[in-house]
Structure formats: structure tokens, C-alpha cells
Amino acid sequence: MTKRIGITNQKGGVSKTTNTINVAGGLADRGLDVLAIDMDPQGYLTHRLGFKEAYKADSPNFADALNSPSDYDIRNLVVTHDEYDLLPANIDMFHLEQELIGSGMRPRLRLSDVLKSVNDWDVMVIDSPPSLGPLNDNVVLAAENLLVPVEADESSQLALTHLLRQLDTLEDNYGAAIDILGVIVSNVSYPLDNEQQSSIDWYEDRFEGRVPVWIIRSRAALKRAVKSGGSVFADDAEDVDMAAVYAEIAEEVAP
Q: Which residues make beta-bridge pairs with 182?
């Protein structure tokens, strides 16, 4: 049975896509067959991995599959990256999100329907849009296993609180059992200023004894790896100490 992991936080700028790329890379580096899924209409994951044309592709595309899950096999929409496979986002997903907003609760299960009988991969890693809208809810309900990227600031603490409330609502409405597998504090610069230290302490206190809290330091080599279209585990990636942290995350969440 394929394990699904959603990378989610409604706040933008918390490195969701960077973490998706590198968690998927870490899992693939462990010898697992990995499918990365881009559920963000902006398509940052798709673009970063070098599939700009897929993002603009006419039908059939991922937006079509989400709009009518029973009519499409997403295995036919998957593209191959050097490290793992990708189900690319499509620009038409912007229209889909608007349609789902006014469509009640059932449309929050579209991704679950799309993935229902797909077990060709060991694990799926799903990049979410920066919102608490229906597409993000689709990711949460389809995956039920979440990694939450944050930054070491007060606004991320507030966003996390909002996310936890939304997860409670989804569990109540759908009978879901949603697990947070860990919190990834991204873009941390040392030496820590007071706000960063206070925020890291808050995350560690909030989740102590429950789930890991990982610290990803700001590294130019990490940014260059993503810019070049791959993870820190790619064959041509520079050596960077954060690869060890992503390897630890992959070990923790691997099926």
C-alpha cells in the first residue's frame, strides 16, 4: 500500500516546495519508488523540477483528473524526473479551485478519488498550495500523514495554530485520522536572534514527546540545488550539511 505524505501549511514562504523536493529526494535516495505530486495551482514544484511545458499542457492534465476523477488514470499523466516521478500541476487548476470553493464538502475528496487505486509507488509526497482552501483540504484528506514546514517567526506560529484547527474540523467532518509526522523549521539563520530562538522553543515545547522538530539552516547550496532542478541528493548536487537532516526526515517518514 502506497504511503502518502502531504507537505502543508497555508502560510506562503515557508519552503513547502523546497521541502517537498528534498524529502522526495531523501526517500528516493533510500531506494524507494517515489511520486511527487504538485497540488499547487501556481506550479512551483513543477517548474522547479523542469516541467514548464507540462504545466501549460492541454487536456488531458491533472486539472481534468481532479475535476472528473473516474474518467482519468493519473499514471498516464506522470512525468519522469532524474530522481523520482512527478504528477505535474496545471494552470487550469486555478479555475478548479474557484469551482470547488462553492461546491460544498464532497469536492475535498477529489484527490482521494484520483489516487484510490494507485499503488505503483512506495510513497507519494504531495506539495500543497499556500491556503486553507479546498485544494489543501484535498491533500490533507488524501494523505492523512503530514509534514508541516514553518519558519522561526511568530506569523508561522499563528499559521500553525490555524492549521491545527482546520485539521480538527476535517477529522470531525470526514472521520479522518490525520497524523502530523513532524515539523520542519526552514530558513533558519545562525546566530539565532530572539524571535527565531523564541519560535524554535515554542515549536519544540508544543510538540515535545509527540513528533520531531527538524531545523533546516539557510544554505546557498540548498537553494542552488533547487534552482538546478533537483534535491540535495541528486548526483550533481553540492555537498551540504542539510542533506543529513533531510536523510533523517526520510528515515522517519519512510513506509
A: 147
